[in-house]
Specification:
The chain is built from 14 helices and 8 strands. Strand 5, helix 4 and strand 6 form a beta-alpha-beta unit. Helix 3 packs parallel to helix 4, helix 9 packs across helix 11 and helix 11 runs antiparallel to helix 12.
Length: 345
């Protein structure tokens, strides 16, 4: 099962287990730790008193009590001292130990905060990268739905350079798209018509904006019957997806896990030649298969979608494919930063 990045209060997550970024005493503290203890009630503290604390990088489990989860997994993250004191290895161990406990107790859904990224001062971008790397590695061998819970926008950061590069790319493409919309429209014959030098859209263009395809495609011969046209139907999204998986030499599991897509959803797609996926699902598979931009546009078209320079989501996807970056979790981090829908689940 996949990773989902969500903006929420972790104490409100209805999952099998939530992970608490605790201190070594396990007796409560500030930040996420304090919020979880307050929401769970005094019985959580009483159970924690019996555990004898916890070493940094390790994890222990308790009941959830008044929380909407069965369990709380308490893990102690490292305090940031510049990055040269084993902080990364300890943080990786936090995720590894927590996920091992979740698996041992039969948890199917788990929610993590960004461990150590609060009062322990671990750089947020690096903390997020460790979280994604460790959870992804675990999910390659295990079925579990894992949430990374971000409380607010200030708790989340992609690198300033990446954010700036994507913002500039979006700005460039938006200018290009808006220029095209301002200076052209489609007439009754389906042709692109110059509107002249103006920075104001005509009224009919505001209410009926030009389509992404401004020039008509070659029509079927006038003598063609409906049956002739139906007989020329192209392969479906499902057929193209399965063909591409074979061409890439991937297994089904490798593909849907790399796409951050649930196994059950993939089974529906495989079992129904006419399955109509969402746009985010199509792009997730395009990323998993490392398709070129033209191939991505082709597989989108099979499902009835297209990429547009009038859509921030589409431009961000184009940015990553153009730069041959097919890491779906990095792409989702960027989409999250720009308040866009995420790929996969």
């Amino acid at each position: 099962m996949p990773i989902q990045i969500v903006r929420n209060d972790i104490t409100k997550m209805e999952v099998d287990a939530i992970v608490n970024a605790a201190n070594n005493t396990l007796l409560g503290g500030g930040g996420v730790d304090g919020c979880i203890h307050r929401a769970a009630g005094k019985d959580l503290l009483e159970e924690c008193r019996t555990l004898g604390g916890c070493e940094t990088g390790q994890a222990k489990i308790t009941k959830g009590y008044n929380l909407p989860c069965k369990y709380v997994i308490h893990t102690v993250g490292p305090i940031w001292h510049g990055g040269n004191h084993g902080e990364k290895a300890l943080l990786e161990s936090c995720y590894k130990s927590s996920l091992a406990l979740a698996k041992e107790y039969g948890c199917e859904t788990v929610a993590f905060p960004l461990i150590s990224a609060g009062v322990y001062r671990y750089p947020k971008a690096q903390a997020l990268q460790v979280a994604v790397d460790m959870i992804t590695s675990f999910l390659l061998e295990n079925d579990m739905l894992v949430y990374i819970v971000i409380f607010d926008k200030s708790s989340f950061q992609i690198s300033e350079k990446l954010f700036s590069d994507i913002a500039s790319y979006i700005d460039d493409k938006y200018v290009e798209a808006n220029f095209e919309f301002i200076h052209t429209r489609t007439d009754d014959a389906g042709r692109s018509v110059l509107l002249g030098e103006t920075n104001i859209l005509p009224e009919e263009t505001k209410t009926n904006p030009p389509t992404a395809q401004c020039y008509p495609t070659a029509p079927m011969p006038a003598s063609a019957s409906l049956q002739d046209m139906v007989n020329q139907i192209d392969e479906s999204f499902s057929q193209m997806l399965l063909r591409k998986i074979d061409e890439k030499g991937m297994t089904d599991a490798q593909c849907y896990k790399k796409a951050n897509v649930d196994r059950k959803l993939f089974s529906k797609i495989r079992g129904d030649i006419h399955y109509r996926p969402s746009k985010t699902t199509v792009i997730a598979f395009a990323i998993a298969l490392e398709l070129s931009l033209d191939e991505t546009k082709d597989i989108l078209m099979k499902a009835g979608f297209a990429l547009s320079h009038s859509n921030k989501f589409d431009i961000i996807i184009e940015y990553f494919i153009s730069h041959k970056n097919y890491n779906i979790f990095e792409i989702n981090e960027a989409l999250f930063a720009f308040d866009q829908s995420l790929l996969g689940a």
